[in-house]
Specification:
The protein is α/β, with parallel strands linked by helices. The protein contains 14 helices and ten strands. The protein has a seven-stranded parallel beta sheet, with helices on both faces. Strands 6-7-8 form a three-stranded antiparallel beta sheet. Helix 2 (28-35) packs across helix 3 (39-51) and helix 6 packs parallel to helix 7. The termini are far apart. Keywords: DNA-binding, Transcription, Transcription regulation. Belongs to the SorC transcriptional regulatory family.
C-alpha cells in the first residue's frame, strides 16, 4: 500500500523541517522553536518525510575500496570480520606499524573489564602493543600463549605481556619457560609443572587471543630467530608443504600442524586450543604473508584478520585459485 501524497502545504513544511535537520544540523527542539511547532510534531514530520522517500542518505568514503576488500575476504572465508589498512608505503616497517595501529584500535573495541588476553610474541604483536593508547584503565589480565626466547624485544613474550598490561592498566601473568624444550619428554615435564600449567590453563580460558602469522620462507621469516634451523631443514619444510608459523607451530598449506620435531618440543598451546576464545585476532603485513595467511585460514585458527591492502589482495588471489600469486 503506497503512502498517500500529502497536500502542498504539508509537503512544504516537511521539506523545511528536513532541510533544517539534515542539512543545517539543527536539533528537533531547535526546529520546533524556530517554526513554532511542538517537538513531537517535528518528530512526526521527519518520520513522514522518511516514509515518503524524501530522505536519502549517501555516504562517500575515500576508503570504500578497503571496506569492499574486507567484505570480500569475509565472504570468501570463515572469518567473522576483517580490517584492512591502506598500503601507502613500500617500507615494511611503516606498513607493519599501520597494521599494528589498526589492530590496536580493534582490540580496544573488543576488550571488556574482566577479559583475559592471550598473546604470542613477534614483530606484529609488538607493533600492536606500541600503538595501544586507551583512554582509561581496563581491568584485564594478559597472559602468554607460548614460552619465550630471550634476547630480542619481540621474541620475549613475557616482555610483551608486561608492556601490554602496563598500557592497558591490567595485570600481567608471566610464564617462565623456554619456547623450545630439549626434547618431547622435557616438554611434557615442563608443561605439567604447576607454575607453567597454571599459565597455560589461563591462556586456554582466554576470552581474546592476539597472534601474529609468520612465514617460513628463508627471506622475510622471523621464525628462524626463535630457533636455529639447519638450511637443509628449511628447504625440506617448504618441500613438505609447510607454509606458516602460527603460535610458534609450523603449519602446512592444508591448515594442519606439521609433523616436525620442533612442533613436538614446543612449550605452547596448540592452535586448536584457542578455538573457544570469544575473538581470535590474527595480525600480518606484507604480500609474502599471503600463503601463510591462507594456511591459517584453512585451519580455521582465527576469526578476525588485520592486514594491509597489498596483503589482502594477494590472499584473495590465492583464495581464487592463483597458486603462483605473490
Amino acid at each position: 500500500m503506497t503512502e498517500p501524497t500529502p497536500d502542498f502545504q504539508l509537503t512544504r513544511q516537511i521539506h523545511t523541517v528536513l532541510v533544517l535537520h539534515f542539512i543545517e544540523g539543527l536539533r528537533q527542539s531547535e526546529i520546533a522553536s524556530k517554526l513554532n511547532l511542538s517537538t513531537s510534531k517535528v518528530n512526526r514530520l521527519i518520520a513522514q518525510g522518511r516514509k515518503l522517500g524524501m530522505v536519502r542518505i549517501d555516504i562517500e568514503s575515500p576508503f570504500q575500496r578497503l571496506a569492499d576488500l574486507e567484505a570480500k575476504i569475509v565472504s570468501a572465508t570463515a572469518l567473522t570480520s576483517a580490517m584492512v589498512t591502506p598500503t601507502v608505503s613500500g617500507n615494511a616497517e611503516t606498513k607493519l606499524q599501520q597494521v599494528g595501529q589498526a589492530a590496536a584500535s580493534m582490540l580496544m573495541e573488543t576488550l571488556r573489564d574482566g577479559d583475559v588476553i592471550a598473546i604470542t610474541g613477534g614483530k606484529a604483536i609488538s607493533a600492536v602493543v606500541d600503538n595501544l593508547n586507551p583512554e582509561g584503565s581496563i581491568d584485564v589480565t594478559v597472559v602468554p600463549l607460548t614460552g619465550g626466547v630471550q634476547g630480542k624485544f619481540y621474541t620475549d613474550v613475557n616482555h610483551l605481556v608486561t608492556r601490554m598490561a602496563e598500557r592497558l592498566g591490567g595485570k600481567p601473568v608471566l610464564m617462565h619457560a623456554p619456547l623450545f624444550a630439549e626434547n618431547a619428554a622435557q616438554r611434557e615435564m615442563l608443561t605439567n609443572m604447576a607454575s607453567i600449567k597454571e599459565v597455560l590453563d589461563l591462556a586456554r580460558a582466554a576470552t581474546v587471543a592476539l597472534t601474529g602469522i609468520g612465514s617460513v620462507e628463508p627471506r622475510g621469516s622471523s621464525y628462524y630467530d626463535l630457533n636455529p634451523v639447519p638450511e637443509a631443514d628449511r628447504k625440506m619444510l617448504v618441500g613438505m608443504g609447510v607454509s606458516a608459523e602460527f603460535m610458534a607451530h609450523l603449519i602446512g598449506r592444508n591448515g594442519k600442524v606439521a609433523d616436525y620435531d620442533l612442533n613436538r618440543r614446543l612449550v605452547a598451546l596448540n592452535p586448536a586450543e584457542i578455538g573457544n576464545c570469544r575473538t581470535v585476532i590474527g595480525v600480518a603485513a606484507g604480500a609474502h604473508k599471503a600463503q601463510p595467511i591462507r594456511a591459517v585460514l584453512n585451519g580455521n585458527f582465527v576469526d578476525t584478520l588485520v592486514l594491509d591492502e597489498e596483503t589482502v589482495t594477494a590472499v584473495l588471489a590465492h583464495l581464487e585459485g592463483s597458486e603462483d600469486a605473490a
